[in-house]
Design goal:
Immunoglobulin-like, alpha+beta, 4-stranded antiparallel beta sheet, 2 domains, 1 helix, elongated
């Protein structure tokens, strides 16, 4: 019986040591904060646009990437250390054109702690120089009983 107890003790000790190592490693890992996107309020055709995604915290520091239509378009990021943990930034730049009009850009951050990456999206609306700001119609008159109208309209920007 003594040999069983002494044989059991080393196995139990190894188990508790491995469990303690796992707990320490798990405690050292933490998920990153939610991505924060900064972008211009108004985007006009042919403007140089920079979308910035910033993620604070996380252990290990997260990777940060931009996606468009579920396709990765930029995986480059910089990491700086602050008193609150890492700050990871990915900037994506492009010249605004019709291809970006009504597109959704997604920023994802992941450090392997959570089951899925954290993400935030931004909807891009590109204004052209022909965007209608004001429509003025004059000389409106009824042509028949079905309320068809004849008018002259002027578009101003």
């Amino acid at each position: 019986m003594d040999s069983t107890v002494s044989g059991f003790a080393p196995r139990a000790s190894r188990f508790f040591i491995l469990l303690a190592i796992f707990i320490i490693q798990a405690a050292a890992q933490s998920p990153p904060g939610a991505p924060i996107i900064t972008a211009p309020q108004t985007i006009k055709r042919n403007d140089q646009i920079t979308l910035t995604c910033t993620v604070k915290g996380g252990s290990p520091p997260p990777s940060v990437k931009w996606l468009r239509d579920d396709i990765v378009i930029d995986e480059t990021f910089t990491t700086t250390q602050s008193s609150d943990g890492p700050i990871v930034v990915n900037t994506y730049s492009f010249v605004a054109d019709d291809e970006e009009h009504l597109e959704v850009f997604e920023c994802q951050s992941d450090n392997g702690v959570l089951q899925n990456p954290l993400s935030r999206t931004i909807f891009v609306e590109v204004w052209s120089k022909y965007a209608v700001k004001h429509l003025t119609c004059v000389n409106m008159s009824t042509l028949d009983l079905f309320f068809y109208y004849k008018s002259q309209c002027k578009i101003t920007q």
